[in-house]
Amino acid sequence: MCGIVAYIGFQPAAPIIYKCLGKLEYRGYDSCGIAISNRDNITVEKDTKRVAALQFNTLPLDGKIGLGHTRWATCGEPSRANAHPHVDCLHKIAVVHNGNIENFEELRKALVGEGHIFTSETDTEVLPHLIEKYYEGELGQAVTRAIKDIRGSFAIAVICAGEEKVVLAKQKSPLVIGLIDKEYIAASDIAALLDYTDRVMYLEEGDVCNITTVGIELYRNGVLTELTEERIAWKPADTRLGGFSHYMMKEINEQPRVITETLAAFEGVSEKLIGLLDPPENRRTSLLMVGCGTSYHSALVGKYIFEELIGRPVNVELASELNYRANVIADKVALAISQSGETADTLQAVRRIKATGCKMVCITNVEGSQLSRLADLSIYTKAGPEISVASTKTFIAQVALLYAICISHANIDEILKKDLERGLGQIPILIRQFLNEQSNIETLGRYLATFNNVLFVARGINYPVALEGALKLKETSYIHGEGYAAGELKHGPFALLDSNTPAIAIVAHDRTYEAMLTNIREIKTRKAPVIAVVEEGDKEVADLVDIVIEVPHTDPFFSPMLNVVALQLLAYYTALERGCPIDFPRNLAKTVTVE
Ligand code: F6R
Fold first, then answer.
1. Which tens digit of pLDDT belongs to each residue from 209-227?
2. Burial grade of 77 (CB within 10 A; 0-12, 13-18, 19 or more)
């Protein structure tokens, strides 16, 4: 999704802005641009190019104040004209924007009627014209006035020729300011800032802020307010490839460490969380979990875990669906899951759930994210920045946390609790062993790359893993993968089965085992090739299917955490064989900040 950057300081702005834009590329974009202010002039360069190509193909820009933008088209196709920054008629005001202006058509009509000339199809372009309309010699006041006319979401950065300042405003879309000595970089997320600073300030809804080299003037609800400084724990090296050819592979390999660090950090919040989840009046109430995409899948694993171990009912909702229900049905506590903590659908669902009076716990990877600010309690996955669009390490960290929450929450005898804690603690070792020893997934990826459709089937606690495996395959390799509950095949999808549609069966040694064997036989009867993800040494499944991927033995309760790694690798190698841009799939964005 769109990423914005703004710089003001005493160094040439353009190289810093380009570098920060490069760090936002992972969010997904189709065009980019930069505006540099130098005394009475603003120079804009933009195109449907990669950031490095734009920098390489433009003359050096002189000036110590500027804006940058990576655009993920939502309103108007990807084109040079639609790329940001956008400017006013006199080319004195430049704006970059992340978000969605709902009433732009009526605003545009009115502005055109007043003589403003538009050059793009975007919603954003109304902003520089509105600011121009209200400008009376001070940019901050003009921005404050202009945003009163806007309905929708925005994080904007604005500069004006002749004024040595950057003005920021935020409503629903993310915006963070990085602090360096007398220099400031504002950006959509902290990944952009890591090379420059670990000191940040987060803006809240409705904030407007004037930044000069003298300092930051923040207006919250119109009142001058002090911003509090926070520290980022991530390091610049966390965003580098570190010898891997793709971030996805790097991040898959980081999973053992990520689980260990996530579980260690959880110990610090476990008591607070149990206090929230488990007062006597809450014990029989249901827990609502919400998320999108991969985070929704981890919530589904959570449902199985909670219901299996403690019998507490869990309702899992897609945030984007919950947002359009007439009524939000939530009990006392709800849990929102989001890697970025910035997914617009999830944030909106959280606002709706909170409005019912329900307490909100969140699991997120990004400290300071909007989700963590909305929640009553935040639990962090310690995955470090996830750059690959396809989530891997954050999924496993979310699931590890759900296990830890469930085990610490469970009213079970101490021996069983200790056993489960030990079992969970072993998972990083088993994943490391699997990553080191697995030998046939690369070959299998080459085989899978020849098909157009693949079915992923499982039952019980591994059903969400089938959904996640299918999602990983489709987003990285562009092969249609469909996750299905194995027992549902006979209710429709059987019609798809033939020798051109392989099925991937995820088989755990739990109460679903026999039923899975039956389903595999049914699939084989329809001539579909079957690949099974099984526990090592499972002869019975190996004899039945065409190929097996063996994962190390573990308590089946924890099997999703091993099985999903096999499917992540399979998606990776399939995409590699097909020559797909693994880390940055077409049309996708890492942080989805529009609803
Ligand atoms: C898929 C993937 C997406 C995200 C979804 C929600 O690999 O990463 O499906 O899970 O966009 O994002 P977050 O977790 O940031 O809310």
1. 999 999 999 999 889 999 8
2. exposed
